[in-house]
Amino acid sequence: MACAGRSRPGHAAILGAVTTKTYFIRTFGCQMNEHDSERAAGVLQTMGYRPADTIDTADLVLFNTCAIRENADNKLYGQLSQLKPLKLSDPSKTVVVGGCLAQKDQEGLAEQAPWVDVVYGTHNMGRLPELLSQADSAELPVVEILEHTEMFPSALPARRDVVHHAWVSISIGCDNTCTFCIVPALRGPEKSRKLGDIVSEVRSLVADGVTEVSLLGQNVNSYGRDLVRAGLSDATGRRNRTMFAELLYALGEVDGLERLRFTSPHPKDFTSDVFAAMRDVPAVCEQLHLPLQSGSDRVLKAMQRSYRARRYLDLVTEARETIPGVAISTDIIVGFPGETEEDFAQTLAVTETAAFDSAFTFEYSKRPGTAAADMPDQVDPAVVSERYQRLATLTRALSRHANERQVGTVQQLLLEGPSKTDPTRLSGRTRTNRLVHVPDVGGFEPGQLVTARLTDAASHYLLGEVTDAEVSDPVGAPAPARVA
Ligand code: SAH
Ligand code: SF4
Ligand code: F3S
Questions:
Q1: Which of 144, 279, 381, 452 makes the best surface tag, with the fewest CB within 10 Å?
Q2: Which residues in the chain show pLDDT less than 70?
Q3: Cβ(102) to ligand 3 under 6 A?
Q4: Ligand 1 centroid to 68 CA: how many Å?
């Protein structure tokens, strides 16, 4: 179907000139996508676009999409149909869909929403100006999906909303074959950035006022293996250290970087040198996100997650012993094909033993094209939902318990801004990434580091008050006992 009156702002002209148009980006999915949206915003701003306050008033609306679970797909299609009347009543509005779901559905997306102007994938955000320009004269949506990344997205300009925090990608793609996961099909094989390029980016971010950096990769602790294989590694450090540990030590040398975090490591690739770096590099925060996925060895095997529950718990023990006060969070999937009540009981048992500080729990979602989608014994949705509730009850109780353990301690907080629910309070994060609200007594700036005494705990946040008392010794959950 051709779309009526595709009269748009004349992007061909914008390629070389400045526009007064505005944009609004809605991001779905993970931190990687949040970061990609900063790049998309950077590209649009280079074209002269300015941010709009609302989706309704924006001249250009960009959906940066996710396809990890079916509800991510549904959300996007729901929002697109909400936007349709607006677009049809104002054809000069430009609608762009990019990212993972666009990569997955390609032409199918343009067929379902033929009034969309541009569809691009996970490998070609840098082509946005050309695609917008092509859309000016096109009758049908301009769809460009590439199979491989030509340019590291980090080479594109970024527009960050927050002054003190920045995401930094250390690798893109994933070489793993987790049978439930669609990411490798959408983001391609793992490609690492050069260590020197990452360090330079962090240095320039810090020079720009950033004090906290979160390193991003689908599997951060296999960082650099591809570079070593290709003889392209620029790590100058010691033998026997993984490239990821090297990177943490190298970034620890950047003056002015107060906090360094990373997500996600894979348990199969976790090595002791990374725990040592977390202990030795003062900027690396006492926080570890370590996806478990399942506590059952049978299910882990079917998921092709090549560690077992015992190995996972040994990593938790090592983390808790090496890094005092470390907070450990995880991802868990409930209802993977073939999961029995006994398998699920093992997930509950490992969760309890690991005493997670927080957990992201998901109902298994069948992703066509993944190996698990064709497995027999898909679990009845009612059973999945009932197990999900039981796991959520446990993880909520563990989070509350972990937070209660912090009450009475004095900790460093990085202030983020006014609390979203109570304007008389400011919200900040501890080094362990716990959300803390303190009374706003005036004179504080987002990004400022203060010390706070923690006074009350709930499952997802703590309350506290700013103090000039000394920071306390860290308190964490006890390490699970080692089994010989
Ligand atoms: N690379 C990261 C994960 C990215 S996806 C890692 O390995 O840690 C984030 C989380 O989504 C995964 O850890 C997993 O728990 C969940 N997830 C991925 N595919 C899923 C699916 N098909 N159904 C339900 N949850 C899924
Ligand atoms: Fe998906 Fe597994 Fe890769 Fe994570 S490690 S992105 S879960 S395939
Ligand atoms: Fe992230 Fe979703 Fe893509 S979780 S990598 S945006 S499929």
A1: 381
A2: 1-18, 236-239, 484
A3: no
A4: 7
